[in-house]
Amino acid sequence: MLTKTYTCAVSGVDALTITIEVHIGSGNKYHIVGLPDNAVKESLKRIESALQSSGYRMPRQKIVVNLSPADIRKEGTAYDLPLAIGILTS
Description:
Blueprint: E1 2-11, E2 14-25, E3 30-33, H1 38-41, H2 43-53, E4 62-68, H3 80-89
Parallel strand pairs: 3-4
Antiparallel strand pairs: 1-2, 2-4
């Protein structure tokens, strides 16, 4: 199932809308595409522990997360909540 959520990134003094698309399918790996830095790549581990602490479980299927537009560098931990919402709704 494909789910879209939205968040913002700050570039200088401008706020840019970032679309987060989450697809859960058959398989068992996690992928984040769309020019993420290491903090964003590690967010799935933080999300998994937060979901378990809240009584939810992380799907044991292939999760593909697309962060668009792809030409903007995504940095920091600000994407954790929209990613978690996208995973839960998928």
